[in-house]
Amino acid sequence: MKLKILVTAGDGIGPEVTNEAVAVLQEIATLGGHEFTFTEKRIGGIAITTDGAPLPQDTLDAALVSDAVLLGAVGGNEFNSLAPDKRPEAGLLAIRAALGGFANLRPAFAFKELAVNSPLRPEIIEGADILFVRELLGGAYFGKPREWNRQTGVAFNTMIYTRDEVARVARIAFKLAAARRKKVTSVDKANVLEVSQLWRAVVIEVAKEFPEVTLEHQYVDAMAMHLMNRPRDFDVVLTENLFGDILSDESGVITGSLGMLPSATIGGKVNLYEPIHGSAPDIAGKGLANPMGAILTAALILRHSAGLEREAEAIEQAARKVLEQGFRTADLVRGNTAGLTVLSTAEMGAKVRATVKEVLARA
Ligand code: NAD
Fold first, then answer.
1. Which pLDDT tens digit goes with each residue over 16-35?
2. Which of 255, 309, 330, 332 gives the lowest tally of CB atoms within 10 Å of its CB?
3. pLDDT over 90 (residue 45)
4. 284 C-alpha to center of ligand 1: Å?
5. 104 CA to middle of ligand 1, Å?
6. Radius of gyration of the chain from its Cα atoms, rounded to whole angstroms
7. Residue of 4, 141, 175, 357 with catalytic role
8. pLDDT tens digits for 295-316?
9. Residue 3: in which H helix or E strand, if any?
10. Atom of ligand 1 nearest to the CA of 290
């Protein structure tokens, strides 16, 4: 298997965590005889300082000819006074738009060992494993017309979807559910919004192509509550852009730590993979960053850009095993550290790699 990966490590802890993600991918390549090539380019604050723009043209050109883009994180306090379109985050928005991915996949899963970090009771979250599929290019964030008229004191946005926009993201959700626990929960507000009535009608149509997958509908307000009361009941959760933004963040509490969560944006020209955390300037360069979010993002690259499901699962299993064995980065330790071993970023990466090797050898 050949795979060309562009690594845009970015700022703060971005380079530290992407180093570990790349090292895991290299390990997988060596073990399986795969040919993964890695090209590094700048994005975000480091690109502003070096190239004068948050997304240099040569980074974008390299992204468009790669099979997958792995992004670390962008941002830094020294750029906070710049105008929004000049800031590091503008580079992230620009690369997302240029790659054109419309389906944002964001898992929310509970690690038994980290239940202590979640505000939810362990018996509620244990075993929860949800995959959010959020439509990323439509809805109120992009809909026109939009305006804030300061004279009249009136502001509005347009929540708009076409049949095709709904169908293409729904198809991705059903395909993913077919390979998981075979259930899609589609979230809308069809009791009030016409745009949600279209959403629901199209999702019902697409569901007919996947008879093995069960479809249920939930109103977004009820769903916000169900996710906290009974997260184990959900498999794939399909949402439009705004609802997905809110619900996927809410579900972060199931995992209990920002440093553990990966994401993938698929369906466009090139898939974009990134841990969900930011550049964490407060801990950058100290070896304190948790590389798990980035390493689990590497698993998503293998699953969605390489078709290497066994290897993707090996990384996910290794992450669980390492936690079971009591290894933690500093962000995962609350209070009592008895029985726990606190590791640096690089030590945690090495531990996961060694465990991936064991898992694959046993499989
Ligand atoms: P953040 O995610 O960087 O940090 C929030 C808190 O979580 C901090 O205390 C940080 O130390 C901790 N944290 C985050 N990731 C961690 C990890 N892997 N291991 C251990 N601890 C971790 O969010 P923020 O502080 O709001 O933003 C910092 C900068 O990052 C800002 O410039 C912001 O714009 C940017 N940002 C970038 C992205 C992105 O690149 N996708 C996302 C969010 C924020």
1. 999 999 999 999 999 999 99
2. 309
3. yes
4. 10
5. 19
6. 20
7. 141
8. 999 999 999 999 999 999 999 9
9. strand 2-10
10. 19
The helix or strand, by DSSP H or E, that contains position 216, with its residue range, turns out to be strand 214-219
pLDDT mean over 183-203: 98
Catalytic residue check, 245: yes
CA of 178 to the centre of ligand 1 (A): 33
Measured CA to CA, the distance from residue 94 to residue 99 in angstroms comes to: 9
Nearest CA to ligand 1 atom 40: 73
pLDDT at 32: 96
Residues having CB within 6 Å of any atom of ligand 1: 13, 17, 73-76, 89, 92, 258-259, 274, 277-283, 289-290, 293, 331
Q: What does the pLDDT average to over 312-327? A: 97
- Between CA 88 and CA 85 the distance in angstroms is 8
Cβ–Cβ under 8 Å, residues 128 and 231: yes
Shared fold status for 1-112+256-363 and 119-254: yes
Residue spans of the domains in the chain: they are 1-112+256-363, 119-254
Residue 323, pLDDT > 90, answer yes
Superfamily of domain 1-112+256-363: Isopropylmalate Dehydrogenase (3.40.718.10)
Counting from 1 in the atom list of ligand 1, the atom nearest the Cα of 79 is 32
Active site residue 249: yes
- What is the dotted CATH code of the domain comprising 119-254? 3.40.718.10
Which position has the token pair 């939009």? 146
Alpha carbon of residue 189 to chain centroid: 24
148's enclosing H/E stretch is strand 147-149
Mean pLDDT of the 160-167 span? 98
* Residue 159 per-residue DSSP state: -
Span 72-131, pLDDT tens digits? 999 999 999 998 889 999 999 899 989 999 999 999 999 988 988 889 999 999 999 999
Note if 189 is an active site residue: yes
What pLDDT sits at residue 335?
75
